[in-house]
């Protein structure tokens, strides 16, 4: 049974009321404070800067030469709505977990209209920094309306559905993993997005998603109950932001 609604700043409803519990909310990404340097103060001499640049270039090419490492983040493309196998979301996550880079998962599932990925079992945890971008599916578009204009006009094309007995997308590591999810409709999970149990440097970033609702965003999703939209656990999370495209439902 759904717990009473509690809506946080950064989460905007359009025709429905969604429940988001245990969510730490920040408007946009928090940047660390930068100390100003007075004019004339030399922070390092030229030779030190040149030496650091040379070392950085050497490290770049050394990393690129190592087996299983790439000098550039990879893009894994989902081309199937199947639960597993070649072209599936599950396989894309497994492949991304094998690299050290901050990779991306895009969608290019053939055919027009909404593509529903019905999961029969828990997806693997995200173990490396990763962006899963549903807006890359043909026909999808991000919201352009400001909060004061009311409503959302995003068009989502990727629907991720669970059976109600497991989590959606989640991280386990307290440190070193930034999971960015955008442009997806998720429902039918214990929690659509789940953070690590211990606080650290890992983060969850949710932008432009419809959580718990149907893909049109005008009613609660039918089928298996969604208990939580986002359960952060100990993980710092950024849910929504100042840009129209970052508004969640």
Overview of the structural elements:
36% of the residues are buried. The protein has two helices and 13 strands. The two termini are 20 Å apart. The protein has 249 residues and is an alpha/beta fold. The model is unreliable at 1-48 and 57-71 (pLDDT under 50). Strand 1, helix 2 (89-96) and strand 2 (103-107) form a beta-alpha-beta unit.
Tell me briefly what this model is.
The chain has 249 residues and is of the alpha/beta class. Helices cover 11% and strands 20% of the residues.
What is the topological layout?
Layout: H1 46-65, E1 75-78, H2 89-96, E2 103-107, E3 115-118, E4 130-133, E5 158-161, E6 169-170, E7 178-182, E8 185-187, E9 191-194, E10 203-207, E11 210-211, E12 228-231, E13 237-239
Parallel strand pairs: 1-2, 2-4, 3-5, 4-7, 5-8, 6-9, 7-10, 8-11, 9-12, 10-13
Give the distance, in angstroms, between the N- and C-terminal Cα atoms.
20 Å
> Using only CA atoms, what is the Rg?
20 Å
Helix content: 10-25%
Q: Order the strands across the largest sheet as they lie in space.
A: 1-2-4-7-10-13
- The number of helical elements comes to 2
Quick one: biggest sheet? 6 strands, parallel
The overall pLDDT average reads 79
**Secondary-structure class:** alpha/beta
Q: Which of globular, elongated, flat, extended, rod-shaped describes the shape?
A: globular
């Amino acid at each position: 049974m759904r717990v009473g609604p509690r809506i946080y700043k950064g989460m905007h409803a359009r025709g429905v009321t969604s429940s988001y519990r245990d969510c730490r909310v920040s408007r946009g990404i928090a940047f660390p404070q930068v100390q100003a340097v007075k004019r004339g103060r030399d922070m390092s001499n030229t030779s030190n800067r040149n030496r650091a640049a040379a070392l950085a270039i050497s490290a770049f090419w050394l990393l690129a030469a190592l087996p299983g490492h790439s000098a550039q983040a990879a893009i894994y493309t989902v081309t199937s709505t199947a639960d597993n196998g070649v072209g599936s979301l599950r396989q894309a996550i497994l492949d991304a977990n094998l690299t050290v880079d901050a990779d991306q998962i895009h969608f290019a599932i053939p055919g027009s209209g909404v593509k529903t990925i019905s999961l029969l079992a828990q997806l693997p945890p995200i173990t490396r920094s990763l962006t899963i971008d549903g807006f890359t599916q043909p026909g999808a578009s991000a919201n352009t309306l400001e909060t004061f204009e009311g409503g959302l006009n995003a068009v989502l094309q990727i629907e991720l559905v669970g059976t109600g007995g497991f989590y959606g997308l989640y991280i386990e590591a307290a440190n070193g993993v930034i999971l960015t999810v955008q442009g997806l409709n998720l429902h039918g999970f214990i929690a659509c997005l789940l953070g690590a149990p211990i606080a650290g440097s890992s983060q969850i970033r949710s932008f432009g998603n419809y959580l718990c609702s149907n893909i049109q965003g005008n009613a609660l999703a039918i089928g298996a109950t969604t208990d939580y939209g986002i359960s952060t656990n100990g993980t710092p999370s950024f849910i929504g932001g100042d840009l129209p495209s970052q508004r969640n439902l």
